[in-house]
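Work Package 4 report. The design task specified in the project plan requires that, given a folded chain encoded as structure tokens, an amino acid be chosen for each position. We show below one input record used in the internal validation round.
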């Protein structure tokens, strides 16, 4: 009888932990606070370790990092548009007259002379980005808004401490016991109410009290304005004056006790409960060429009054309804909802001994979705290099938008993880670059259309960088346009395509002017151009960056021209330029396979100065492009694979993330999984390290190092590519499933064509699959095992070593697919 009871108890527990609809325990949680009393160190771009133990909240506009300290809490603040600098003319009118000579030298094989001339002439006018230190030059940088400090005036010890970020609700919670009283805090950033909301409660009435202050390292003032505390100021415009204005307001709403405002503090005494509401804004307006607009003091007051007029219950419901409607669309279960009993930082550090921590992998995937929702909402700017969270005046690489991979990587997972609602800010950024990009194309190159180079900011910077070695990434505009088309491929939104098609066509127009014919082959090539940031040894031993027709450029332009022609057919456009695009597409030089079996990075077999370089831009055609199909062109796939093997598995955080996607596209799930483990290795590297050091910090931010959010979002995209692919014109189920993920379930992923897909698998093979068409149309599914559609007499066929099922779908109808 005793044995029967034990078995029955186990069965019940197992059943409860494996309910398919049960909410997963998706929490980052810790049993100790980040130390808010340790001041930030002036250590350049390096991040501060305590900041990387704190937890992020955000609503796309307003971000905060919560330390969770007991006696002196710090909540570090960001407002997405808060940039120093100002609009500036960086286009170089002298650059175009040297292009012909540079190209001639490169075609003649005189790389040293060509690179020297390029370095002198193909640069921006002025100081550009300040070599990545733009805080006090016109380029500017994304900066911290400052800090909200809460001094509780205590030094007593505490117990039962817990700090957590609840991903299902988008709320940071802190709880502890001090002097016999239980204290709790709840903090969230509300998108509907455009406010940071904080609730403080205690188990004993009248036991809450603190002094609260707002400040930042420079250029601020505070004063009370009636029932709120105002911090305001203006950042440097980079030209000796004031630029962008900002404001932040704080209001305390208490039950019991008193609230007093002074010119520098909010003092809360003997209250039962207190709600703090903080709003922030700048006078930024994304309109070329002025960029400045409404008074932030008025904006923040309006936001504050609206939020403060609502009860905490209403504010919380507004937030959770809005947030969960996005976050709850996708679930990933690799563990059967096993209980989470290990603090997240301990779990992360245990990776060295337990690399197959499947719950950590589930958590990392969903944390990426949380970060994207928090840092990219409709109406806001896109997620930057650090999403929305930065605690510096001079942020790493200016906290800007790098268009040679980083901002693109941020949005790889948006559509496929059912977050198309977060895509708008990237589209609006691209749209905002067209007008300044037309000026750059005309002045810098005497070309039509529009262009942008490897960096841009909120002020419409589209000129090259200060050094061509990294600053002549001319293919950036084409790469951005890949996102415009891909978003259409997921949504099939014709009205949206009508909006972005002219941008794609104008980009193609620029490249038609930019491309030149290689006298040796008759093919069209881009140049002078880099393979982003990766130099090579010229035949005479000189270290060079410039060449004609690097593989990356040629692949991007092939894709752009192809997508422009596809879009024109969807829209029935007959623009005469399309014929020229079609001819140019046929004449484009394409990458070759070298004598060593690798895909060549340049048009000639140059030796790399760093064979394991972090950038792998010449493999663009594999990912995010779609020109490599291992089943149909195995020779090309093998060349890409050989290139990845030589590049090795080391790298910065974002580089490791990209390699996960590469190996997934090669259908090698175990190798992709190996790189996921490397991305999840615990990092204590805080200084910039472009060779290695990639990994994950205590709060699961990606170590670039320093922190860069592209590693988080690119890693999430890689996990998705292991589970579902649709870039080759069909839905590929579990195309790169690691052997470790033997059983599992994912719900809500989206395939191109607008198909929402749920997959349950066992023994590494699909079990039940559910397909829900958003639009309807031809649905083609590829799987390792034979599947049949319930209710339809459609049989799969065997093709390229897999089973292919094809059927006509109807919008809104649910299709169940089961093993045949």
């Amino acid at each position: 009888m005793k044995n029967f009871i034990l078995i029955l108890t186990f069965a019940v527990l197992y059943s409860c932990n494996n309910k398919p609809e049960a909410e997963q325990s998706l929490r980052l949680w810790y049993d100790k606070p980040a130390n808010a009393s340790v001041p930030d160190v002036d250590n350049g771009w390096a991040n501060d370790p305590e900041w990387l133990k704190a937890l992020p909240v955000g609503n796309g506009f307003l971000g905060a990092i919560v330390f969770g300290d007991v006696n002196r809490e710090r909540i570090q603040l960001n407002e997405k548009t808060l940039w120093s600098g100002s609009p500036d003319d960086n286009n170089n009118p002298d650059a175009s007259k040297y292009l012909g000579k540079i190209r001639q030298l490169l075609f003649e094989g005189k790389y040293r002379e060509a690179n020297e001339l390029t370095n002198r002439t193909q640069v921006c006018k002025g100081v550009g980005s300040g070599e990545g230190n733009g805080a006090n030059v016109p380029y500017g940088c994304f900066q911290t808004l400052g800090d909200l400090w809460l001094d509780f005036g205590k030094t007593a010890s505490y117990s039962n401490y817990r700090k957590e970020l609840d991903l299902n609700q988008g709320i940071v919670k802190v709880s502890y016991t001090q002097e016999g009283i239980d204290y709790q805090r709840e903090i969230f950033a509300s998108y509907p109410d455009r406010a940071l909301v904080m609730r403080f409660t205690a188990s004993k009435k009248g036991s809450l009290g603190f002094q609260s202050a707002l400040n930042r390292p420079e250029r601020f003032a505070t004063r009370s304005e009636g029932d709120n505390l105002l911090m305001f100021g203006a950042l440097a415009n980079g030209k000796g004056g004031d630029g962008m204005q900002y404001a932040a307001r704080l209001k305390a709403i208490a039950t019991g006790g008193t609230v007093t405002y002074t010119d520098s503090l909010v003092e809360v005494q003997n209250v039962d409960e207190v709600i703090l509401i903080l709003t922030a804004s700048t006078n930024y307006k994304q309109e070329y060429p002025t960029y400045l607009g409404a008074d932030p003091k008025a904006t923040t007051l309006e936001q504050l009054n609206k939020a403060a007029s609502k009860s905490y219950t209403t504010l919380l419901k507004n937030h959770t309804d809005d947030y969960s409607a996005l976050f709850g669309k996708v679930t990933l279960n690799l563990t059967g909802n096993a209980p989470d009993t290990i603090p997240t930082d301990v779990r992360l550090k245990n990776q060295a001994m337990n690399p197959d921590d499947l719950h950590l992998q589930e958590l990392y995937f969903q944390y990426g979705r949380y970060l994207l929702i928090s840092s990219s909402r409709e109406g806001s700017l896109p997620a930057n290099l650090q999403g929305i969270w930065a605690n510096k005046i001079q942020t790493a690489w200016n906290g800007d938008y790098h268009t040679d991979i980083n901002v693109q990587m941020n949005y790889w997972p948006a559509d496929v993880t059912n977050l198309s609602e977060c895509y708008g800010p990237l589209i609006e950024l691209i749209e905002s670059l067209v007008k300044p990009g037309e000026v750059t194309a005309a002045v810098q190159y005497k070309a039509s259309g529009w262009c942008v180079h490897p960096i841009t900011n909120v002020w419409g910077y589209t000129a090259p960088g200060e050094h061509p070695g990294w600053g002549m990434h001319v293919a950036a505009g084409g790469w951005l346009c890949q996102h415009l088309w891909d978003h259409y491929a997921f949504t099939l939104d014709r009205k949206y395509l009508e909006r972005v098609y002219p941008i794609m066509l104008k980009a193609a127009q620029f490249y038609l002017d930019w491309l030149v014919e290689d006298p040796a082959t008759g093919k069209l090539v881009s140049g002078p151009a880099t393979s982003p940031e990766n130099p090579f040894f010229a035949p005479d031993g000189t270290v060079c960056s410039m060449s004609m027709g690097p593989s990356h450029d040629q692949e991007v332009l092939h894709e752009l021209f192809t997508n422009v022609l596809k879009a024109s057919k969807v829209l029935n456009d007959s623009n005469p330029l399309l014929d020229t695009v079609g001819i140019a597409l046929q004449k484009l030089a394409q990458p070759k396979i070298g004598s060593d079996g690798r895909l060549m990075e340049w048009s000639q077999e140059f030796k790399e100065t760093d064979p394991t370089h972090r950038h792998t831009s010449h493999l663009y055609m594999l990912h995010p492009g779609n020109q490599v199909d291992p089943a149909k062109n195995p020779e090309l796939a093998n060349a890409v694979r050989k290139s990845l093997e030589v590049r090795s598995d080391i790298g910065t955080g974002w580089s490791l993330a990209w390699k996960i996607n590469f190996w997934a596209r090669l259908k090698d799930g175990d190798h992709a999984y190996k790189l996921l483990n490397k991305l999840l290795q615990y990092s204590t590297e805080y200084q910039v390290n472009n060779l290695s050091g990639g990994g994950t910090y205590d709060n699961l931010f990606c170590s670039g190092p320093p922190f860069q959010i592209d590693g988080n979002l690119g890693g999430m995209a890689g996990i998705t590519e292991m589970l579902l692919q649709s870039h080759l014109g069909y839905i590929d189920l579990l195309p790169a499933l690691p052997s470790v993920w033997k059983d599992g379930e994912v719900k809500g992923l989206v395939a191109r064509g607008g198909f929402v897909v749920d997959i349950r698998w066992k023994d590494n093979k699909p079990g039940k699959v559910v397909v829900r068409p958003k639009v309807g149309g031809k649905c083609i599914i590829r799987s390792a095992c034979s599947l049949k559609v319930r209710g339809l007499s459609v049989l799969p066929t065997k093709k390229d070593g897999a089973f292919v099922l094809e059927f006509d779908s109807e919008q809104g109808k649910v299709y169940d697919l089961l093993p045949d």
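Residues 1-21 have pLDDT under 50 and may be disordered. Validation will be extended to a larger panel in the next phase.
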